[in-house]
Predict the structure.
Amino acid sequence: MKYVTIIDIARELGISKSTVSRALAGDARNVKPETMRRIQEAANRMGYQRNELAVNLRRQMTKNIGIVIPEGVTPFFMNFIQQAQKEMRDKGFRTIIAVSNEDPEQELENLTMLENCRIDGIMICPCHKSKNLDAYKRMIQEGIPMVFFDRKINDLNVSQVCIDDDLMSHFMVEALIRRGRKHIVHIAGPNFVSNAVDRYHGYREALEKFNIPYDPRYVVDGGLTAEEGIQAMEQFLSYGLPFDAIFGFTETSILGAKSVLQKLHYKIPEDVALCCISGTTLCTLVYPTISAVEQPVTQMASEACRILQRQIETHDLTSEKIVLRGNMKLRESTA
Amino acid sequence: MKYVTIIDIARELGISKSTVSRALAGDARNVKPETMRRIQEAANRMGYQRNELAVNLRRQMTKNIGIVIPEGVTPFFMNFIQQAQKEMRDKGFRTIIAVSNEDPEQELENLTMLENCRIDGIMICPCHKSKNLDAYKRMIQEGIPMVFFDRKINDLNVSQVCIDDDLMSHFMVEALIRRGRKHIVHIAGPNFVSNAVDRYHGYREALEKFNIPYDPRYVVDGGLTAEEGIQAMEQFLSYGLPFDAIFGFTETSILGAKSVLQKLHYKIPEDVALCCISGTTLCTLVYPTISAVEQPVTQMASEACRILQRQIETHDLTSEKIVLRGNMKLRESTA
DNA sequence: GTGAAAGCGCTAACAG
DNA sequence: CTGTTAGCGCTTTCAC
């Protein structure tokens, strides 16, 4: 369990470790081709594996970046990661993924962990819009490049790329109304998630636009999980109000709602239209009964990568805000 | 962008860096309480963040482990990660996740990356049963604790925890037959994934047991993705053979098949029963129309953690093979 | 082209 | 209880 070091190679070849280091770093101009060859041969033969820990300690740069996500079950985040990982890899960065499980404390732990590992930058989708504000602030002040994505942080001047939740929500509800749906339930997200607040606004605006009176009982708290979606649906049903559409905050909570309705033999989408602002195209396949407006995940990841990279390279942490618009086309449900 | 070091703190307080190091490591017995307090106060005030790079280089131990998964869209892997991350965190390990995108080359890159970061151990679900065998062998020989999970590697004596795919597949197909399904299509996985081969065996065995003649046209190659599932289904339909059930290798490929059938207005599960050996309980919610035998993800993660930890702590890399049995209960589909 | 030496930030023996 | 010292493995001047 002893790793081979450049010193071992140097000793084996009777040369200095500096030369070995240079050769292995591919510094062709400062190493004689013959020596180069011998060193590479020895390295392979002896099974040398360069110690990034030492390199990074020396270089004061890790070429690692961290991605912090609130949860992992929604395809949205995995798609984001996939794209981001690909783009960063092309630029020579490795990616460390950390999941916070919607818990600000775990998020803080993750951030500290990443900082202690001296990552070069962080992309984060925060799980709470205010709980870890101090930590974010401190890290940025210390000069760590940070880009926030998807969920917004309003009270802090940070770089962020997000979608226009208000607009997309408005659009989606309007589309439902134009299709003849009159009684639209909104399973709202928690108010500590900015997107939830914005989507609620969009819902209200659309109703107003069509002069549909707002009844607060049509908005139920749905949290983030499927279980919470189930509870929300059951609560709404207990009011005994008529309804013909449900607009959920997350894909997960709407799935919960759906399962409740299915048990009661509702026909979807004839009796009731289900929709959400969804993460990915895959969504059509996975949740075929649910209409959705698509979020531009790929674009979001690309923008986040671009900003992070700029910050890392230029050491200029000027914040940059990007608001994307999703694919504003209501997908018809297929089931 | 200059991090505070223990030397800075030592200088500030006019003491030696050793004392600072001890204090910050919580070595209460060797530091006067008063000094302890002063050091902690200074560390906080100055915004000290311990440099793990240096610690790890010195300690020759990172307390980081790596988890390598072939893909991220299936809930199964995210559930595994969630559980594993939790258990390892409790034992003081951090987790680095790397996704290979079903590509052996990316997998190799991931492994090298993790090795260069000197992780203490690796959990891996390999994307190919033979392509990276040499790399696995080399790493184990070098003394890196490795545990394989879910997908088996038969040609190498490694630690692995997996499920009895053969048995579960047999059970599932038998259950279909007992429910009166006669013409069962099997959308098979690629033969470079061990589980696919085993499940195919289970399928054959069950047919044999009930004296149902085997027609090779009922087994179509379905790969791993939804797209491949779609192609597979279309190919099978082109044969014009009767069928009343489909047993897919992955959740994703069966979803592809399902979408094809739905376009043709098949009723699921009345006209055709869909099933797969699924990753998680969540599956019931997400794919309500698909029957499934559940895999014991949590248990799998726990076992993997246990083995990895033992290997890390004892430096004893003796391999250990665990074969789990899923929850052998065919869930009735709900839609 | 190559080597010698300094040092990245930290820990752990050893000495006091 | 505290300080001194010697590295962990590597890169990078600065000499030769």
